[in-house]
């Protein structure tokens, strides 16, 4: 276990070592965040009491800011890292080490994610509250605690998705098109660009059949006290289901990929 935390520490230090990069990431996040805020303010006519699809302006602005925090917290480069290890053959060395390669990759990514959340996500969240105003607090203390739990679930789900698709590199020379599809599906079904509140019922039903809404939309809904059908218990159980499903899926694909690697290696 010490090896995993050592990798986590190294990844964390590599992110925090260059303070100029941290400042640049904060500025970049704010620059990309503010246009979305101004757009939704315009759509609501700048009226705090305006309601669209049962959602007021404050809830919408809160969704944008909290969603950005989740996006930073659940970001993952595991897929690209696994793909590169497979391409250059280093995966063979990883397999021979007395540690689980996927856990090693995940802890390395977790170190970078923690650094990004602390030195990028939280500052952006605080600055957004101070500059934008109208950002709502959690529905209650219990909702905030449950939001933290759902945020951890979102991080696990996203990491498992990345691990699953990264392992596909055993069969494909380039995962660029796969990453493109993952990004597109995440943008559509997680509420990254347009919250599911404003989308047709059939689209929301379809999103419930995919794990992406459990990464972003569910945690924000818990934060605001607005749940998907079945309430907060259903939301957390949905995340738990996808964690188990994706865990066994990536385990199956990894085993198949390792067997293929052994055969090709003679």
Describe, in plain words, how this protein is organized in 3D.
The chain has one domain. By secondary structure, it is mainly alpha-helical. Strand 1 and strand 2 form a beta hairpin. Helix 1 runs parallel beside helix 6 and helix 7 packs antiparallel against helix 10. It has eleven helices and two strands, in the order H-H-E-E-H-H-H-H-H-H-H-H-H. The mean pLDDT is 81. The protein starts with a helix and ends with a helix. The radius of gyration is 20 Å and the shape is globular. The relative contact order is 0.13. Strands 1-2 form a two-stranded antiparallel sheet.
Structural class: mainly alpha
Q: From the alpha-carbon coordinates, what is the Rg to the nearest angstrom?
A: 20 Å
The major beta sheet can be summarized as:
2 strands, antiparallel
Q: Name the poorly predicted regions.
A: none
Count of alpha and pi helical runs: 11
Measure the end-to-end span: 31 Å
Order of helices and strands: HHEEHHHHHHHHH
- What share of residues is helical? over 70%
Strand content range: under 5%
List the SSEs and their pairings.
Elements: H1 2-16, H2 19-43, E1 51-52, E2 55-56, H3 57-73, H4 78-87, H5 90-96, H6 101-132, H7 141-167, H8 176-189, H9 201-207, H10 217-224, H11 231-265
Antiparallel strand pairs: 1-2
Helix pairs in contact: 1-6, 2-3, 2-6, 3-6, 3-10, 4-7, 7-10, 7-11
């Amino acid at each position: 276990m010490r090896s995993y935390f050592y990798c986590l520490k190294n990844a964390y230090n590599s992110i925090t070592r260059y303070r100029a990069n941290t400042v640049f990431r904060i500025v970049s996040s704010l620059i990309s965040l503010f246009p979305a805020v101004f757009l939704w303010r315009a759509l609501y006519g700048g009226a705090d009491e305006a309601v669209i699809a049962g959602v007021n302006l404050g809830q919408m602005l809160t969704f944008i800011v909290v969603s950005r925090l989740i996006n930073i917290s659940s970001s993952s480069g595991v897929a690209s890292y696994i793909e590169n290890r497979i391409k250059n053959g280093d995966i063979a060395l990883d397999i021979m080490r007395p540690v689980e390669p996927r856990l090693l990759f995940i802890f390395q990514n977790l170190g970078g994610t923690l650094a990004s959340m602390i030195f990028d996500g939280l500052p952006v969240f605080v600055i957004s509250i101070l500059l934008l105003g109208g950002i709502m607090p959690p529905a209650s203390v219990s909702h905030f605690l449950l939001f933290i739990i759902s945020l951890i679930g979102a991080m696990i789900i996203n990491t498992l998705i990345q691990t699953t698709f990264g392992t596909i590199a055993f069969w494909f020379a380039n995962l660029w098109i796969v990453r493109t599809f993952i990004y597109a599906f995440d943008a559509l079904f997680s509420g990254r660009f347009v919250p599911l509140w404003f989308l047709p019922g059939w689209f929301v039903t379809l999103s419930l059949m995919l794990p992406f809404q459990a990464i972003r939309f569910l945690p924000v809904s818990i934060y605001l006290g607005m749940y998907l059908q079945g309430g907060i218990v259903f939301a957390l159980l949905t995340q738990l289901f996808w964690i188990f499903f994706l865990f066994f899926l990536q385990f199956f694909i990894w085993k198949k990929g390792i067997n293929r690697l052994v055969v090709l290696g003679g």
